[in-house]
């Protein structure tokens, strides 16, 4: 694994994703309680930024058509999306968030 610093933990809001650049990908960093997750910042339905949506109940909602994705698995939990988005390993080290984009947790190849 090749973790890269993505952002400070304090930069990640509780109710919306934060878009960060890690390697060649834009990643949506999401908080769910005390946990932090990373998803590819691209809705699998309409190819728009998930970081412009909202986070609630362990899901991130796409702002354009309302597709919802589980922050842990990347699986869609609300139509119109039917394909998952890539999820990446996260390591919180002190006050910083590190993400590994060289592998995915759910086996989905990032677009």
Automatic annotation (TrEMBL):
Gene3D superfamilies for this protein: Rieske [2Fe-2S] iron-sulphur domain (2.102.10.10)
Domain Rieske, residue spans: 4-99
Pfam families per UniProt: Rieske
Keywords: 2Fe-2S, Iron, Iron-sulfur, Metal-binding
UniProt KW Iron keyword: yes
InterPro entries, sorted: Rieske_2Fe-2S (IPR017941), Rieske_2Fe-2S_sf (IPR036922)
GO MF term set: 2 iron, 2 sulfur cluster binding; metal ion binding; monooxygenase activity; oxidoreductase activity, acting on paired donors, with incorporation or reduction of molecular oxygen
Keyword Metal-binding: yes
Name of the protein described by the UniProt record: Non-heme iron oxygenase ferredoxin subunit
Organism: Nocardioides acrostichi
Lineage of the organism: Bacteria, Bacillati, Actinomycetota, Actinomycetes, Propionibacteriales
């Amino acid at each position: 694994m090749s973790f890269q610093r993505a952002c400070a933990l304090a930069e990640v809001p509780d109710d919306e994703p934060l878009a960060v650049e890690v390697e060649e990908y834009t990643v949506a960093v999401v908080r769910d309680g005390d946990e932090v997750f990373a998803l590819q910042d691209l809705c699998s339905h309409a190819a728009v930024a998930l970081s412009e949506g909202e986070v609630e109940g362990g899901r991130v909602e796409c702002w354009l058509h309302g597709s919802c994705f589980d922050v842990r698995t990347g699986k869609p939990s609300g139509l119109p999306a039917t394909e998952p988005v890539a999820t990446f390993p996260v390591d919180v080290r002190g006050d910083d968030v590190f993400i590994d984009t060289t592998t995915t947790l759910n086996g989905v190849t990032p677009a």
